[in-house]
UniProtKB/TrEMBL annotation, chains A, B:
GO molecular function: DNA-binding transcription factor activity
Top-level taxon in the UniProt lineage: Bacteria
Name this protein carries in UniProt: Rrf2 family transcriptional regulator
GO CC annotations, alphabetized: cytosol
InterPro entries per UniProt: Tscrpt_reg_Rrf2, WH-like_DNA-bd_sf, WH_DNA-bd_sf
Length: 138, 138
DNA sequence: ATAAAAGGGATCAAATTGGTCCTAAAGGTG
DNA sequence: CACCTTTAGGACCAATTTGATCCCTTTTAT
């Protein structure tokens, strides 16, 4: 359980690639897709989400493409994951104040704890850190 | 992301009910399903998994039903969740030693950390604790 | 104008989720 | 034994989600 989907994985790979480019360098979606080994049309959707959320900025037309909208050191893994997968939410009942049935939410506190912990782990990792980390082949 | 499915939620509700019964008391699946407000046939499948894994013991025929196979204080929330949802696995790459593409698994260590943390939270909660916890209506 | 990008909607196949149904097997009871 | 009760297990099914693809529009540089 709790698996990241392809979308999430692609999102991470794609934005890491962007973060590895020289500052200000514009990348085409085709270029990012090739480098990250992700289906291009799918990645395009992902980057649309990024753009809407202000993680990357996009420009159209000749010479257009994508650039990080903020320094990589200020973009957290959590933001990237949540951008495409929605909020970290181990159980629906963490949304409303009350749990579904007329009452018991014995596990509520546990899910809350899981949520808090996962969020804090993902918030502590920046895209910059990931982009600089060595590949661990083999 | 990371949402528990209905199956997981039903599993927890069902086994909590069992844990609330007087020791040794046999419960019918129909009874558990009604109490936990879960579709009976679906819950039956869930309890089949429990039985195979030795969380509950089952007996057939008249007077048959389900009982916890071990003291509720030795059954952790993690066991229950994993019984029906599979292992806590934030990313596939935590299975094999290497990550998919010829190399980079920059986020590998992060997912490992998430996995470890979640497992430890869920392992710290026993069904007994949940069964005794007060309902938090409203 | 035209070509090069991203934006956005529609669509689609495959997998997963959430369940039902039916028959078989096992265990009591008269 | 025949019969009833109860779980076991397999087949099946609808709805949703996932993982894409396609096509047309919009923006922008030349």
């Amino acid at each position: 359980m709790m698996e990241l989907t392809r979308k999430g994985e692609y999102a991470i790979r794609g934005i890491i690639y962007l973060a590895q480019q020289p500052p200000g360098r514009v990348s085409l979606i085709s270029e990012i897709a090739a480098a990250a080994e992700v289906p291009q049309t799918f990645l395009a959707k992902i980057f649309q989400s990024f753009a809407k959320l202000g993680l990357v900025s996009s420009s159209r037309g000749t010479g257009g493409g994508f650039v990080l909208a903020r320094p990589a050191s200020t973009i957290t893994l959590r933001e990237v994951v949540e951008a495409v997968e929605g909020p970290i939410l181990p159980n629906r009942c963490l949304l409303g104040s009350a749990c579904d049935r007329g009452g018991p939410c014995r596990v509520h506190a546990v899910w809350k704890q899981v949520q808090t912990e996962v969020v804090s782990i993902l918030d502590a990792v920046t895209i910059d850190t990931l982009a600089r980390s060595p590949d661990c082949k083999g």
